[in-house]
What we know:
The protein is about 60% helix and about 5% strand. The chain contains six helices and two strands, in the order ααββαααα. Helix 2 (about 35-50) runs antiparallel to helix 3. The termini are far apart.
Amino acid sequence: MLLSPRRAEPAARPRLRVTAARVRHGFRTWRGERPFWAGLFTLTAGLPILYWPYAHLDLGGIPLALSTTSGAGALIIGVLLITLGITLWYHAHLRVFSGIATLLLTLISFPVANLGGLFLGLIAGLIGGSLACSWSPVATEPPTAPADCASTAVPAGESQRGT
């Protein structure tokens, strides 16, 4: 029949599952090596801060516009928060700078950008900045003794004083 969808061959399904598992594992590894959730909260904090000053809502025939003089400030703060969120994902070594900048921009957005995006951007930004400042990379190797230190072990039957 021409109208029925073609089913995948039985051999193609295991390959698809293996590929999907490999992609999930790769994403999980990538996510574990960087402050992923801090970047996600920071990026999502910029969206409501950008949206509300430029939104024109209609409540039962009454136009509601929140575009005030805060439009330029909200634009700058929102774009910077989105940039900092992406920076946290791709440059994890800048996590402390990005976290502190996120916290400061989020606090500045409260009076400048319509209560920090009607508290949505404010709360997400505070969570993202806090997570960025507190994240630390996973240690890959256990700490080892320096190679230049000589062993202080004493052979059996001898004393340390040499007597």
